[in-house]
Prior knowledge:
Chain A is α/β, with parallel strands linked by helices.
Amino acid sequence: MTISDQGSNSPVPSSLWGEKGELGLIETKFYTFDGLALESGDWLGPVTLAYETYGVLNHDKSNAILVCHAFSGDAHAAGWHEGDKDPGWWNEMIGPGKAFDTDKYFIICNNVIGGCKGSTGPSSLNPETGQPYGLDFPLITIGDMVECQVRLVTRHLGIEKLLTVSGGSMGGMQVLSWMGRYPDHLKSAIPIATAIKHTPQQIAFDEVGRQAIMADPDWKDGNYYGGNHPAKGLSVARMVGHITYMSDTSMAEKFGRQKKTHSGAEKFTADFEVEGYLRYRGENFVKRFDANSYLYITKAMDNFDAAAGRPFPEALRGRDLNVLVIGFKSDWLYPLYQSQEIVKACKLAGLEATYCEIESTYGHDAFLMEVEEETHLIKHFLRKIYNGYEVTDES
Amino acid sequence: MSLDLKAIHPDHRIILDWVEPGSSVLDLGCGDGELLYHLIKEKSVKGQGVEIDEQAIYKCVAKGLNVFHDDIEGGLTDYQDGAFDYAVLDQTFQQIPRVDLALTNALRVGKKVIVGFPNFAYFKSRFQISFLGKTPVTEALPYMWYETPNLHSVSISDFIDYCARKGIKIERRAFLGGEKRVYLFPNFFAQVGLFLISKTG
């Protein structure tokens, strides 16, 4: 639902919200269902999903797109929340006339389970105890996240077939999981900067993050909700994460070896700009993210295997599914060969597919930064899927 | 939208003529996707392009085409045998390091293969070599020796010999001199040779 005419009564400059081509004010909605039998065998219930929608669902419900967020993202993909200075995390890609054009399509984005932005996660109240779950929260998988999305899309919103499902990084894992589990509910899929499964290197970085959190005395085996949160541990985890999201080149361009000025009395301060940046990002992250969610969600990513026990191409064979795979040349966290493995699966399964390696220096962050190229690819791809393979001569 | 046949390259027109309607086509080195675009419009083929240049890929996607960002050898890997009715190597195979391996693989992935290449034995080239003593530069081979992307110089006769030696069946052939078809002494008068080939037996 878009509310584009409410910007004028707000403290934030209405010019941002009311601007042509922008979605304006957006409200997060909630959908609660009885619960879910998880892949682990445990039961999680009731489950609440925070979600947002942009654009209008058409009469035959054929214009719906699910956008899946990355590790630290949330349901707020586009538009502005009341009082916020910044828009949603993919605002440059979602809106009127943008790649995911809200004048044509109905876009859905939800916070994953295990998260801390309105969907049921370790910081939610455990109905059995009346206290936050903490480590009583069961282990979840990317597949469990997708099972919840299926309920949101098919049961709650009544959409039988999505025009596409798209997302980068962990969002891309959800896309691959949809492709493997529910291809009949998809017309197409757009996995971006992602992998069929994590490599030891990717698991290693996640493990460093988890160890940093668990080494913080304030973590207290996850039972910190009444007191101090493990801010230091979570902040260090985020710092490591940010290093992996950038590239050697993008760091050199952004920071160089420039030093910040300080009195010189203290030792081991953030002398270099990059140190200050990482500390700032780490400290900021603590304000908006729950440490236990970090543990659960990174574990879900590490355990993810789109193939789920059988060769991924087998899961895709014979499906009427058009796939757009996007990778970025400087992404060393999710290197191109991982995108190429997805392409290989599409080839072996006989799916129609497109693959583009976008030239970029941003590293893994590129999927949020290279808006122009992604817009061109996604816009034309979606037009083909939506209009039904009518090739056009526009370039 | 009606098809403007005049706008189509003469080599593309021949390929359009050869390809069966409704078949599947893998175009290796598809550039901005012009051939695939016409094949889909005119022959309702199921088309897949392979292209190494990122900007060309954006043009393909704007035309609604399926395209993989890869080189020709990479574009032929992973497919099952006979995955496509046709594999097309038009004006590209002279730039592949090992043409024999690529052709063998193309004949594996495609039930039939269409190749098109500039004829090195074109009479103007012969004249430039024999009488001027210079490496030939022609309309079909427009590069100076120091800037050419072409790794191989191949004539129509060379290719026919190759097919005979490898037991490759030549099903159809066509020769072009500029815009026009060449019927007499193609290895002398044709600038471009086009072949529809398949494995024998």
